[in-house]
């Protein structure tokens, strides 16, 4: 069942908010929406990939196998959902039409990487992170997989690709971000200005600037690779906890703030924040993704998906 809430105009834009309940107990962790509007999410607690059709509200659950505990999901350039499957320590693709599940396990020497998030580079290769202190690359065409030790050990978490094709990841435990050499796999550490900030997730804007959600500091930061410069903004409220970050196609920045139990939107041109509190306690939005006009957030604590429509 879907609930509909429309906010009053905030700033210059009206945002319509709609929530879709998903099967209880799945605790949706990450979410991704395809160009066709179909929404995929990881039901981490039950080992499924969920498929929501927003037009009907119908949710289908696709089992990912015994022991599955999926974490991240994105829609790849092939239109299929790709998953970091932590329970079986593998990268997984689900065929959007047949629902067939294909798995690429990590090498046995990399048992339980605590897989987190994935992204595609411009050559169609999958890059992924593991919180135990690894990151890796899978070529789906050949099946070749390489896994590297992160330069500072534990912590690799969010990962994203810029419009120019560069790949950056955030290290939550390592308190930094890193740029990956797409050919050698070497990771170059980039230090944020705030020490011990807990860089959790990253996303790029249209100009290739890297936005970082800082869990421990409660900051939203931006790294500009061209000038190698940083800007930092504190989220509103007394005790912000910036978990996820996503840059929408209009270059507005969305952050999930666990401290305020809210989604927050930041306009870099005005440097103003707008806050959209959840109507459920402890909603716990862990990741954000979208498409033009839509921003999707999985409320893992409420077993529902919420869309913020800006058009």
Any overview of this molecule?
With 311 residues, this protein is mainly β. The protein has a single domain, classed as YVTN repeat-like/Quinoprotein amine dehydrogenase (Methylamine Dehydrogenase, Chain H, 7 Propeller), CATH 2.130.10.10. It has strands at 2-6, 16-21, 28-33, 39-43, 48-53, 58-63, 70-75, 81-85, 90-94, 101-105, 115-120, 126-130, 134-138, 145-149, 156-161, 167-171, 176-180, 187-190, 199-204, 210-214, 219-224, 229-234, 242-247, 253-257, 262-267, 272-277, 289-291, 294-299, 304-309. Mean pLDDT is 95; it is low at 1-12.
SSE layout and pairing:
Blueprint: E1 2-6, E2 16-21, E3 28-33, E4 39-43, E5 48-53, E6 58-63, E7 70-75, E8 81-85, E9 90-94, E10 101-105, E11 115-120, E12 126-130, E13 134-138, E14 145-149, E15 156-161, E16 167-171, E17 176-180, E18 187-190, E19 199-204, E20 210-214, E21 219-224, E22 229-234, E23 242-247, E24 253-257, E25 262-267, E26 272-277, E27 289-291, E28 294-299, E29 304-309
Antiparallel strand pairs: 1-2, 2-29, 3-4, 4-5, 5-6, 7-8, 8-9, 9-10, 11-12, 12-13, 13-14, 15-16, 16-17, 17-18, 19-20, 20-21, 21-22, 23-24, 24-25, 25-26, 27-28, 28-29
Main features:
Methylamine Dehydrogenase, Chain H, 4-stranded antiparallel sheet, mainly beta, 5-stranded antiparallel sheet, 311 residues
The ordered string of helix (H) and strand (E) elements is EEEEEEEEEEEEEEEEEEEEEEEEEEEEE
- As a percent range, the share of strand residues is over 45%
- Structural class, judged by helices and strands? mainly beta
Q: What count of domains describes the coordinates?
A: 1
Mind summarizing the main beta sheet?
5 strands, antiparallel
Provide the gyration radius in Å. Answer: 18 Å
The DSSP helix count reads 0
Q: If strands are numbered along the chain, what order do they take across the biggest sheet?
A: 1-2-29-28-27
- CATH class division: Mainly Beta
Shape: globular
**Mean pLDDT across all amino acids:** 95
- How far apart the termini lie comes to 23 Å
CATH homologous superfamily annotation: YVTN repeat-like/Quinoprotein amine dehydrogenase
């Amino acid at each position: 069942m879907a609930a509909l809430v429309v906010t009053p105009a905030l700033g210059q834009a009206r945002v319509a908010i709609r929530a879709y309940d998903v099967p209880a107990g799945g605790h949706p962790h990450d979410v991704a929406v395809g160009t066709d509007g179909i929404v995929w999410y990881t039901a981490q607690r039950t080992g499924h990939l969920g498929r929501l059709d927003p037009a009907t509200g119908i949710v289908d659950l696709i089992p990912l196998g015994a022991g599955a505990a999926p974490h991240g999901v994105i829609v790849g350039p092939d239109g299929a959902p790709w998953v970091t499957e932590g329970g079986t320590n593998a990268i997984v693709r689900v065929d959007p039409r047949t629902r067939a599940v294909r798995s690429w396990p990590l090498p046995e020497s990399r048992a339980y990487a605590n897989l987190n998030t994935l992204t595609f580079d411009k050559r169609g290769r999958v890059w992924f992170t593991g919180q135990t202190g690894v990151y890796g690359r899978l070529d789906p065409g050949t099946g070749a997989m390489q896994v590297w030790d992160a330069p500072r050990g534990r912590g690799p978490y969010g990962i994203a690709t810029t419009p120019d094709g560069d790949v950056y990841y955030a290290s939550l435990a390592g308190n930094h971000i890193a740029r990956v050499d797409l050919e050698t796999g070497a990771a170059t550490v980039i230090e944020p200005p705030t020490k011990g900030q807990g860089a959790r997730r990253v996303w790029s804007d249209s100009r290739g600037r890297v936005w970082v959600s800082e869990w421990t500091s409660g900051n939203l930061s931006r790294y500009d690779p061209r000038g190698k410069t940083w800007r930092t903004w504190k989220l509103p409220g007394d005790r912000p906890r910036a978990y996820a970050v996503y840059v929408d196609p209009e270059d507005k920045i969305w952050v999930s703030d666990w401290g305020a139990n809210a989604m927050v939107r930041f306009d870099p041109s005005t440097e103003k924040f707008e806050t959209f509190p959840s109507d459920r306690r402890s909603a716990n939005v862990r990741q954000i993704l979208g498409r033009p006009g839509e921003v999707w957030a999985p409320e893992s604590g409420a077993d529902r998906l919420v869309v913020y429509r800006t058009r």
